Amino acid sequence: MSDDVRTLRLEKLARLRELGFDPYAVERWERTDSAAGLLDRFEELGGDADEGTERPTVSFAGRIVSMRLMGKAAFAHLSDGDEKVQGYFKKDDLGEEAWEAFGLLDIGDHLGVTGGLFRTKTGEKSIHVRTLAPLSKSLQVLPLGKEKDGHQWYGLTDVEERYRHRHLDLVCNPEARHALLARSRIVSAVRRYFESKGFFEVETPMLQLEAGGAAARTFGTHFNAYDLDVKLRISLELYLKRVICGDVPKVFELGRVFRNEGVSNRHNPEFTLLEWYEAYANLEDVMATVEELFAFVARETGLTPPPSDTTVADAGEERVAPDFSKPWHRVQLLEEIERRSGITAADLASLDSAKRALGEREIVNPATGKRIQVGEEAHLGGLIEKLLEVFVEPHLQEPTFVVGYPLETSPLAKKDPSRPGFTRRFEGYVLGREVCNAFSEINDPTDQRERFEAQVRERARGDDEAHPMDEEFLYALEGGMPPTGGCGIGIDRMVMLLTGMEHIREVLLFPLMRPR
Questions:
Q1: What is the pTM of this model?
Q2: 176-328+402-440+483-507: CATH, from 3.30.1340.30, 2.40.50.100, 1.10.10.10, 3.30.930.10
């Protein structure tokens, strides 16, 4: 915006104040209803009364999003963010000073009005304005565009500007506004679901001496009062399970976690995580909870994931809209890898046999386009999960639980007694994307200590995402933890799924941006 435009608007502000219409002097404005409410209650509020009949006075306020001057009369649309209503302004009704004040207004200003509802000659429901009060003066030119072919054309299309100036995105782009506000409704529905099931919502520390519960690099900071270096949490898991150890049988938390890693369309270093834990529950019980939760949230919010118009890579399978009213599919990890790639469970019996079976076969991750260097893989578990990403995930369009993950990549999941080297763990997928991760939790402190020790050895070999030793958590386990099922869901991904957004930044109000 040029300095000349800002200077002109400041001059208009000064003149408004001289006229006694200071936009910043008004502290409160009583509105009869929202814009949508006025339009819905139009007849009730006298909008269709006979001409010449005295109509009830309504009061409304909103942002000016369009203006049209016609000599001694004018029309302007006022928006409350969700809907807009037209105002009709006439010099003879307002008086000299108020009419001059109206002429000093610009698109982007907030305005309060009172008057009676009526229909224009074109049939549009409107307010015949009798009094007005400017409530803010926009010193910036908002990219609201203009009416085109009967629709509002919005000028804020630059993606970086939308993320950097999210308030403009909320004002100017209805689709973005819908997704961002849908997030609030989704979070509220999640809370209602768990409260209805008898879960207690708790809060656990963000600053931790040992940030555990996931495989991720940490952010660090310094605690001045204790002269301690601390880490921002990467998960909610270990503290929530300590609550379970205190004989609180059902707990959940919705909270921010921080992982110092890359940014992509599905990853943001700061994100909101839901985790819940239920004593005396197993993996199948957690599956039932996941099914109920997604069905409840979709029903409560009225949001349904749209199908994609693309096809699954190398499969030709059309993507379909998920139906959360039905039970989710259940598949075994190794069986699905064999079905999709031809690599058998026998091939995956050891790292050496897996490498021999794969040979020189080129394996490219469809999400990143990067080739998997099979010869550089140090662990069978890591290789198996990469095969899952390449061969299986793109085909998991309908809601599906993939069950049975390797021990090496599941340091907090109970061992599967029927399958050596594997755990009682599942991940949930919808439209080819992971939406949840769940375990039958380890409650054997000796087993858990051995897993942590193995992770510490991996850290010593240079894996800075390996799980740290956590003696406080082990102390709680040694006091006794009942058999427990637990699950984690990234709220950002849940919102992306339900709103049909392809990039995680579309569902974050204020994603971190590099300085200009």
A1: 0.90
A2: 3.30.930.10
